[in-house]
Amino acid sequence: MKTKIAKKFQELFGCEGDFFASAGRINLIGEHTDYNGGYVFPGAIDKGIIAEIKPNGLGKVRAFSLDINEYVEFGLEEADAPSQSWARYIFGVCRETIKRGFKVEGFDTAFAGDVPLGAGLSSSAALESTFAYAVNYLFNGEKIDRFELAKIGQSTEHNYCGVKCGIMDQFASCFGKKGALIRLNCKTLEYKYFPFEPKGYKLVLIDSCVKHELASSAYNKRRASCENAAAAIRKNHPEVEFLSDAKRVWLDEVRSEIPEEDFLRAEYVIGEVQRVLDVCDALERGDYETVGEMMYQTHFGLSKLYEVSCEELDFLNKLARKMDVTGSRVMGGGFGGCTINLVKDELYDAFVKTATEQFSAKFGHAPKVYDVVISDGARKL
Ligand code: GLA
Fold first, then answer.
1. Fewer CB within 10 Å: N-end or C-end of the chain?
2. Within the chain, which residue ranges are assigned CATH 3.30.70.890?
3. How far is the CA of 106 from the centre of ligand 1 (A)?
4. By the 8 A CB rule, do 81 and 91 touch?
5. pLDDT at position 272
6. From-to residues of CATH 3.30.230.10 in the chain
7. Is pTM beyond 0.85 here?
8. Are 123 and 112 in contact (CB under 8 A)?
């Protein structure tokens, strides 16, 4: 990938720049908990973005996406926002950096990636954190800390891409470390690395290749439901800042005051926050059966209470259960994308084969299969 990028960069700009990279992510458990102040448990993966970048002294950005085969130029003022969605991520990162009082000057860039788009692996966070890291390195002497780099990516989503996401994806791609998952408390931003080398098991992603058009508005709607439930609970329990602070019984107290839909969303979130902690405890005991069982519970919640699964993902989950796969669930925001599966080594081949065959027979297209390698996040190459 690096060679391809270097060739294009040379062709377009006639010089050489520095290379920066960042990663997509998986999440073992803790879905839709981040914007509720709860725990998540992600890790960066060996699929990501690589960008070659060089300051150009022109006061504007000249960018080429090799994957989309498109060239875009934009200035660094608010009014200069490009219309191409991929370029808005880069523009947003520049603007959010400037808004925080840091420096961004014009630069040239060519970049490419291998995070499958729309698979729930956070290709957008990989893009944001690559550029946030690079802009910090090139123009700010690395004065911006990694927490702020993650927040620059998150604010880019909020203010330039219309997704009111939490901090998980950008955090994972800024803090990711080879071989380790990160348990993050999204309220305090305290985090802990957990070495993740499950002996006798593999993690595999099965990508339904389904993408839902209205995913970002549906995502924002889920968030609004949670905030509505939290606000109702707060009237009785002022200490509830985020939904994750609420006890299950406190939610029951307000059931008749909020739409049933919001109640179900909140019920899922409160359960999920606890499951992350249970999974971390189980991992420390080497108890993968419990980890897997929690993953199935999460899938149930995401499908029936949070309603972010779909027929294809439910099918893959059911098949995993039938084949005695240890754990399986829809991963990421939902509305399409992947299931993440914890599979015993001896079952791996049969599971992948059967899932591919049966899914293809039912839906008329084959799923994609990705093995997971937990890797480093944002960095200079
Ligand atoms: C998307 C968002 C994250 C998180 C997940 C669901 O990936 O970007 O902030 O909310 O969905 O866990």
1. C
2. 201-372
3. 31
4. yes
5. 98
6. 2-196
7. yes
8. no
The correct CATH number of 201-372 out of 2.40.30.10, 3.30.110.30, 3.30.70.890, 3.20.20.70 is 3.30.70.890
* Helical H segments across the chain, by residue range: 2-13, 85-99, 123-139, 146-160, 168-175, 215-236, 248-253, 260-285, 288-300, 311-322, 345-363
Find the residues whose C-beta lies inside 6 A of ligand 1: 31-32, 34-35, 122, 165-166, 168-169, 332-333
Say yes or no to pLDDT of 306 above 70. Answer: yes
pLDDT at 214: 67
**Residue 23: what residue type?**
A
Mean pLDDT of 12-39: 98
pLDDT in tens, 261-301: 999 999 999 999 999 999 999 998 999 999 999 999 999 99
What residue's CA is closest to ligand 1, atom 1? 333
Q: What is the position in ligand 1's atom list of the atom closest to the CA of 40?
A: 12
Ligand 1 atom closest to the CA of 219, numbered from 1: 11
Catalytic residues: 169
Closest C-alpha residue for ligand 1 atom 11: 333
* Chain-centre distance for alpha carbon 264: 23
